[in-house]
Each structure stands twice: as C-alpha cells, then as structure tokens.
Amino acid sequence: MAKKKQRSLIIFLGAIFISVASLICYLLYFANFPINKGRFFRILKNQPHFEIDKSGLDFHFNSGDLKLAGTLYGLPEDNFLKPCIIILHGLTPYGRKLALYRTLGKKLANRGYMVFAINYRGFDDSQDPVINDDVFAFRMDVENAINYAITHAGVDSSRLYLLGHSLGGSVAFVTSTYDLRVKKVIAIGPSRRVQDLVLAPLQQKLNSGDVFINAEEFRLSHEMGLSGNLETKMIISSIKNIFIDDFKQFYSQEEHTPLFLIDGELEDYRDKEFLAEFFQDIRARNKYQTFQNVSHYHNTINWDGGNLIAYDMKAISNLTESIDYWLKAEQ
To answer: What domains can be seen in the chain, in order of their start residue?
Structure first.
C-alpha cells in the first residue's frame, strides 16, 4: 500500500513538473509575444505574482475624427474629488494593455487616484489615422484624453498628472509644455538618444534620396500597424520635437511643471547616463530615481496583450509608493 501511494505521488508530482515546464517553454519560446527570459526569472527570484487581470472599465473618447480607447481604474466616491493620473504607453502594439500599465493602474487606484490608461491613435483598439501630417499627433490625443477625464465624475481637475513610460514619457514632456492643466509629470524610462538613434538615420535616408519609407520599415508606424508609404521629411518634422533631448530649457525654468524621472538599474548604461546628465541640468523642482534590480519594464510581463500577467510585487510596490509619495509632496 505504501509503495502504491509513493508511486501515485511520484506520478502526480511528475505530471505537475511536466505541465509547468511545458508552459514555461511555450511562453519563453513559442508564444506570439515571447517573454523576456531575464525579466521572467527576476520575477521568480523576487516576489512573483501571477494573475488573470480583468480589472478596470474600458471606455472610448474622440480625438479629432478618431475614436480612441482607454481603461479607467478607480471609482468616484460621494462628495469626494480624487486626483487624476493619465497613463501614456510606450512603443508597443498592445498599447495600454501591457502588464506594467495594468498593475500601475490598479495599484495607484488603490491609493486614491482616478487612473485613465489610454491608447494613442493607431495603437491596439484605437482607430487608425490617415497618413498625413497628423499621423503621429499623440499630443492631440493626450489633450483630448484630458478633456474626457476632467469631465468624469470624481476627478479633481486641479490635481491632474501625466505618467508616461518610454515613448509615453516623451509624449508627456511635450504635452506638459503646452497644456497648463498638467500639474506634474512622471516619466519612466523615457525615450533617450533619439537624435542619434532615430533622427540621424532618417536624415541620412533623406539625404540619400529616400523620399518615402514603407510603414513596415519604421518602428513607430510598424507598431501602430500602419501600411503604405510615409514621407521621410514628414516623419522627421513630426517626431523631432517630442523627445527628452529638446526639453532641457523648459524644465530648467523657475516655474515649470515638476518632473519625476525614473529608470531601472538594468537599463542600457548609455540611457542611464543620458538621463542622469539631463537631470543635472534641470534640478530645481524635479526628482530622479534609479530603481534597483529592474529593467525597462520594471519586472512585469504578459503576452499577446492579453489578461494573463506576471510581475514582481516588490518592484511594483516600490515604484507605486515612490510615485504616490512624490505626487502628494509639495514642490
């Protein structure tokens, strides 16, 4: 009898091991959105949390002639206005649905914020733009998201903040320079060295006579799922003023929108050096923090832009706590 029980236990444990190993292999190597192995094992080593996330309330808003998508985290409370955060996603075809934005949306909502995570034009389930001078008009999308948010019940329009990640950090920069309704900006791993990595190659193409670029060949339009040809000159003029490289003067002014710059210890050392140098030139009323043992996505993963996510609870808790503390501090 004892041997039979022992054999059954071995079979049971073996089945679990094979199932878990098969799932890990599928996610790491065969899924349409393969998981970064470094992030995956960092999560496992720290405080892993896995869940099927169906939180938040989806909504739509208009930006010009386009219908854009978003998700709202947090509910209004009677006779109580809450500060508002608008989350701006990075360069990903899944837009607001990545695990980092899902987890931040929920965690910040639990700390008393109304959080609106939006998709720009062309991303995921937002409507695709026509290829013209407004094809990359993400600032317009954010300003229209603000228009939508401040009319929502429970939102305190005097405490409206932008939280951008990667490309979203850059979009937050440019929006805050034009829209005085934005009171503070958090930029997590904002796009850096764009002049060298993006604009210079585009200018070289233009100088070589490449008047048009196929949308599939340019990462921004590729992630938006656009098709057809884009005019090289139009791309350069559309994106050259939406990156951190150009905002030292604005954030160095005595009265400017306070800025919280964030990066991860495991990001490219050149990006970290760039951000540290930028901060040295804009210190007044701003903050810069490097989080340990995290990379660009702060130890979060998901695949196919779906509901199944995993994250390092410690990393996300530290990030959320720092953001919350800074937003509530007097500048």
So the answer is: 50-192+243-328 (3.40.50.1820), 194-236 (no CATH)
